[in-house]
Amino acid sequence: MRTFLAIGAIVSVLVFGALFALALELLPYLILGLVIGAIIRTRRQRRATPPDYRAPMLSHRPVPPPPHPLTSGGWVYVPVWVEPARAMRVIDAEVVRSPSDE
């Protein structure tokens, strides 16, 4: 049992060491990605700022109506099309045995 615990401890130390070394190797790329993401985010916010701050901002496009007429389905308050509910088929049958089956 002690051998199993010792081998498990050694393997876990090696795995954590390998993950730590990998994290150190990838750290510059992670920092570079965060910096680029922050630059892109600030540029998008500058472009999205309306000239008049009192004007209402619309965050979405108007949703066009469906191309076919509505049936039992319909639109809900969020712009998502909901399919009509399918009726479950119920098969009602009786088991009929002939006298030769017995």
Describe how the helices and strands are arranged.
Elements: H1 2-48, E1 74-75, E2 81-82
Antiparallel strand pairs: 1-2
Tell me what the structure shows.
The two termini are 63 Å apart. The longest helix has 47 residues, at 2-48. It contains one helix and two strands. It has one domain. The radius of gyration is 32 Å and the shape is flat. It is mainly alpha-helical and 102 residues long. Strand 1 and strand 2 (81-82) form a beta hairpin. The protein has one helix at residues 2-48, and strands at 74-75, 81-82. Strands 1-2 form a two-stranded antiparallel sheet.
What is the average of the pLDDT values?
Answer: 77
The span between the termini is: 63 Å
Number of domains: 1
Structural class: mainly alpha
| Count of extended strands | 2
* Helical stretch tally: 1
Low-confidence stretches: none
